[in-house]
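Self-study notes.
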Amino acid sequence: MKEGTEIITEWAHINIQKLLRDRCHDILVKALNILKGLTSFFTEVIGTPDFKSIPSNKYIPLFLLKFYFSNEYIETKEIVDFLEMPVESILIIGTKLLTDATTDEHAELNLTSINFDSIDPDNPVHEEFLCKTLTCFDEILKNTTVNLWTLQKQDDKQTHAAQNLKLQMQSLQTINATSATAFAIDKATEHEALANSQQLSSILRISNLEKIAKKQEQKTNELRKELKTKRTQKNLKESHPIGSVASPEISTLNKNKTKAKQRVIDLSSDDPDEAPIQNIDLAISPPHLRRAAKKPQRGKYTQSQDKKKQCNGKQPNQELTIRHTQFHTTSNRHKRA
């Protein structure tokens, strides 16, 4: 496993270097074409500089490339970091592209033959040519590589941030919707619990009211029975005075008899001695006793018949008095009943 891991690591390193070299090669192909164009343009505008260390004018782009990556005039650290290759490798690849060198050794010889001793700072052509060409090349190269890549990364960050914000908003909406749903469920549960509680309370109150009504009805019945018992006892006490052994009917008859006698005496105050007492007893007696008293006995005249004859023959005023007394006695008995 260790040997296999080492082989895979070495293979990955070699292939990564190849990928990086290919990437650097593709970028330099486009960049050196721009450098060639700038060299041709400023040569015609400013003039061809006389660099004695350059074998021919076709090596001017290679001279500018080497001077550019030397960091003596412009800082190129960002470009080197972007290409992810050492400066020596970048120059060898550029030399192969600008010259006819086919191997790295041949490219290194061409680079060594070029030096910067031929640059004259006091020569305005040298200074203006190098300044404008390298400045334009640096701006174009950085804008098309580093800055573009930075903008792309910023766009990616913004896109990623926008996506994250969108996801956060969606999640927030989901959370809010979930919270609202949970709140609604809680409210519905609370209302349902309150309704159930109110229903249970109503049922309990109705049950208590029914119990109270039953108790009140029971008390009312007991009071009615008690009042009925008291009334019965009172009536018994009134109909059975202490020391009396007569029945209630006889006691009532005696009271009525006494009252009737008193009324007869009052009505016949002119001649109270002539009032027929026996007919008064008959008038206040119960119906069955009156019927029995009216039945005549064989061979004899009843006392009522004699009095009737007397009333018919001798004393009509007394008969009217008896009837009047009988009417009032019967009326009083009905009122008492």
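Second protein, same conventions, sequence then structure:
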Amino acid sequence: MKTYLEKTKHNTFKYVRRVPKELLEFTPNRRFRVSLGSNILEATQQALEFNMSIDEAIQLSALGVDRDTILGKLEHFLGKETANSKANKEPITGTLKKLSSEYLSSQEDNISAEETRDKRYFYEVVCTTIFEHLGLSNNPDVAIIEYKHLLEFKSIITQLPKRNIQRYRVMLLDDILKHLSDINDEDKISVRTVNKYIKWLRALLNFAMMLKHLEVNLANSIPLQKTINEKLQRLPLSDEELQQLLAAVKPEMQYLLQILSLTGMRLSELYKCKVEEVDGIQCFSLLDKSVKLKTKSSYRIIPVHSYLLPQIDSFNQHRDGTTSNNLARVTSNTIKLLKLHQSEKKSLYSLRHKFATELMQKGADSSIVSELLGHAHSTMTLSRYSTGFSVRQLREVVELLN
């Protein structure tokens, strides 16, 4: 590693490094210069520490972290005026709310609007309410959160109810925590959601470590919940079950459910896509980069199945007739009322599973199925992932569906 040490004519050492372009906005100088005395070992050690501070400042700048935090990493190279100005400002703290706000801002370009919304609810509602319930404040400094708090935190989230159950949606989380023992097992959040919450907490505390608010992330020692078989948590609907479902919902919802079963789109994507003609073929387009989707691979086109074409001109009318939340709730409730086989493992998302499962059973190329689904990794569809299939190739696969 380059030390950027220079020896002076007086046999002392100084650190001289050109300011990286990522940090030019934080200093009027073009070079960082610091005198380091005559001891070569001490000078080398100090130079290596300077290098680390500069590298961290570059990373923080890329993440969009606030200016004062970055200036803190560069304080050895800044003039007295800048240092005093920084000292007069409000000190940077590692409070839960401040860190979660900074963390979400740093992730803004990497995650979808839905994931941002869910993470904000978790950090700003779930975490703050539970930590206050555990005897801390609703905005504790992360440095005072102990391992025992994290174990109790995990114990509580495993008992929380699902957010889509009406009687709990109208309750404040603080009131829900007072009645955890009254929540039925079937109403509790899934193991998958519990593990997701633990991972989100780990990520936030890792961010706190990077900003030097923590020396160790205790949440990394909190074990995830064990699952019997992750693949069995959600099951696809059969053709017969789909027909039962369609017959039981209102006509304006039927077409939307048929679209989901014949495209494999996520529910959020159904409400973000446009119908466009590509190479002479009608497609559901998810190519608008101004719309946030789950992953980069989610930006794609899906040919309209021939069964859907007769009503495609009224697509927007069908979609405007019901909200995504209402469609999901009605579908899940209807599946339960129909008492379908293993209905507890079936929901609106089962239509996406149906799409993928049926295509794989019909021998479709798993790489094309992966592209149609917008999967970020090909392992999710059992084969090597590739892109660039023609619209006609995609349509041929979609038309394999009944």
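Instructor comment on the second fold: Residues 5-87 form one domain.
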